[in-house]
From TrEMBL:
GO terms for biological process: translation. The active site is at E148. CDD domains: Pep_deformylase (cd00487). Keywords: Hydrolase, Iron, Metal-binding, Protein biosynthesis. The lineage of its organism: Bacteria, Pseudomonadati, Bacteroidota, Flavobacteriia, Flavobacteriales. This is Peptide deformylase. Transmembrane segments: none annotated. The keyword Zinc-finger does not apply. Binds 1 Fe(2+) ion. Removes the formyl group from the N-terminal Met of newly synthesized proteins. Requires at least a dipeptide for an efficient rate of reaction. N-terminal L-methionine is a prerequisite for activity but the enzyme has broad specificity at other positions. It comes from Polaribacter irgensii 23-P.
């Protein structure tokens, strides 16, 4: 089932998410619905807060980036199969000199900005079977993970922008929260009165 994506301005996007216990009800169904929702919106990642649930769950399918000829062959090969479910994820370490990449977000349609992030991260998480994993991610895989991880920490990519950039996009963000945006996918807006 395709779920509505929560728009900028909703308080759920600012909550630090709760850990998920192994007996979380209907988790398989939720993951399936999130995957359908992500693909329907042409996203490469989707976090549970973006569908209104403040739990530590996100999905990534970065395979569309594997088509980018400007990336190294090594990066393209990693991204081709970077399709995972992350439960109760934690970043253990971030390393390297920050690099800039243009990011967007399904909860903030039509806003794209350059964001600096570190290129190498060490992470731990559980998969959909609650098996524990420890991994090191680099480059674009690390960046997509960091973006989705921020969601479960109550952080949006716009928080990482300079004061000037934030001022420039302020009106756009206000319009998104009021539903004055045309997205190609279902959205739920925080500042729309019920019944309208």
């Amino acid at each position: 089932m395709i779920l509505p994506i929560i728009a900028y301005g909703d308080p759920v996007l600012r909550k630090v998410s709760e850990d998920i216990p192994e007996d979380y009800p209907d988790l398989d169904k939720l993951i399936h619905n999130m995957r359908e929702t992500m693909y329907n919106a042409s996203g490469v990642g989707l976090a549970a807060p973006q569908i209104g649930k403040a739990i530590r769950l996100f999905l990534i399918d970065a395979s569309p980036f594997a088509e980018d000829e400007e990336l190294s062959e090594k990066d393209r090969n990693v991204l081709k199969t970077f399709n995972k479910v992350f439960i109760n994820a934690q970043i253990i370490a971030e390393e390297g000199e920050e690099w800039v990449f243009n990011e967007g977000c399904l909860s903030i349609p039509d806003v794209r900005e350059d964001v600096s992030r570190q290129p190498v991260i060490k992470i731990k998480y559980q998969d959909e079977n609650f098996k524990k994993h420890f991994e090191t991610l680099e480059g674009l895989a690390a960046r997509v993970f960091q973006h989705e991880y921020d969601h479960i920490e109550g952080i949006l990519f716009t928080d990482k922008l300079s004061t000037l950039k934030k001022r420039i996009i302020k009106k756009k963000l206000e319009n998104i929260s009021k539903g004055k945006i045309a997205a190609d996918y279902r959205m739920r807006f925080p500042n729309l009165k019920k019944g309208k």
